[in-house]
TrEMBL record:
This is Ferredoxin. Residues 184-215, 217-243 form the 4Fe-4S ferredoxin-type domain. The lineage of its organism: Archaea, Methanobacteriati, Methanobacteriota, Stenosarchaea group, Methanomicrobia. One of its GO terms (molecular function) is FMN binding. Residues 6-154 form the Flavodoxin-like domain.
Length: 266
């Protein structure tokens, strides 16, 4: 079967998931693509509906070994009918535990057929140039591999005449899921005098945790510690203050400095 269109769906506060999903789509090379970026709260209001005639490439980062809780309700609300789906997780060189299996299970319950899955490595959200973890990932090699994976998906689709004939991908993982998806409630962002109150951080925060009227005010109950505001501040006014997250940054840098390689399952 020929797939004429693909929907690229991703939650990607620091951009690594987005770039791998796009690279896979380049390899698949469908006629048309539509991007559905669910990083912002406003994009998670409408549920997604898909059909058998389009390919879904759906990506999330791994948070505590799991699919981020912030997008789980939206993912569970997807309405699909036999839609072939590619499940993508990005993790920060520690481990993806059961996140890929969890994503596959969610999309399957929504009516998709999970025909492929992969786990790629992205620079850890807590990484910075002084204390890096998986810095610069995904790199050129990763993105080339993502394109190759995309081409293999295309071949898998072309070898059959209907979605029901495509074997489901065997995804590693355990149930009950091992990771505890509860995130830390922590006041860890330092805002310096360089802040111009431009509002970029509040606009891009995936959790709506930053007050648009005062970038120094953060609702720690909503904050998901994704560090998008630190990365995207045009004045470099935001940083991590000492504490739980900063300690984790050093721990990750020390314990997970050996390069891991992407894996894919078809
Ligand atoms: C709250 C939180 C929890 C995370 N948990 C894990 C984890 O369990 N294992 C891991 O290897 N990386 C973990 N990471 C790192 C992200 O999975 C990784 O940096 C990913 O590439 C970020 O994707 P994005 O750039 O699309 O936002 C975590 C990041 C955050 C913010």
């Amino acid at each position: 079967m020929n797939i004429e269109s693909a929907k690229l769906v991703y939650f990607s506060p620091t951009g690594t998931t987005q770039s791998v999903v796009r690279a896979i789509a380049r390899g698949v090379n469908p006629g048309t693509t539509e991007e559905i970026d669910i990083t912002q709260p406003a994009a998670r209001v409408q549920p997604l509906r898909t059909s058998e005639t389009e390919l879904l490439i759906i990506g999330v980062p791994v948070y505590m070994g799991r699919v981020p809780a912030i997008v789980r309700d939206w993912l569970n609300a997807i309405v699909a009918r036999n839609t072939p789906a590619v499940c993508v997780v990005l993790y920060g060189n520690r481990t993806y535990e059961d996140a890929l299996l969890e994503l596959k299970t969610i999309v399957t319950k929504s009516g998709c057929r999970a025909i492929a899955g992969c786990a790629f490595i992205g620079e850890h959200s807590f990484s910075d140039p002084a204390v890096p973890t998986a810095q610069g990932r995904p790199d050129q090699n990763d993105l080339q591999l993502a394109e190759t994976f995309g081409r293999k998906i295309r071949e898998k689709l072309q070898a059959v005449s209907a979605v029901a004939e495509i074997p489901e991908a065997k995804i590693p993982g355990e149930f009950p899921y091992r990771g505890d998806s509860r995130l830390w409630t922590v006041d860890f962002i330092e805002v310096s005098d360089a802040c111009t109150q431009c509002g970029t951080c509040a606009e891009r925060c995936p959790a709506g945790a930053i007050d648009p009227a005062d970038a120094k005010k953060i609702d720690t109950k909503l904050c998901i510690t994704c560090c998008s505001c630190i990365r995207q501040c045009p004045s470099h006014a935001r940083s991590m203050r000492p504490g739980l997250v900063k300690d984790a940054q050093l721990r990750l840098h020390t314990l997970y400095n050996e390069r891991k390689e992407p894996e894919y399952f078809l």
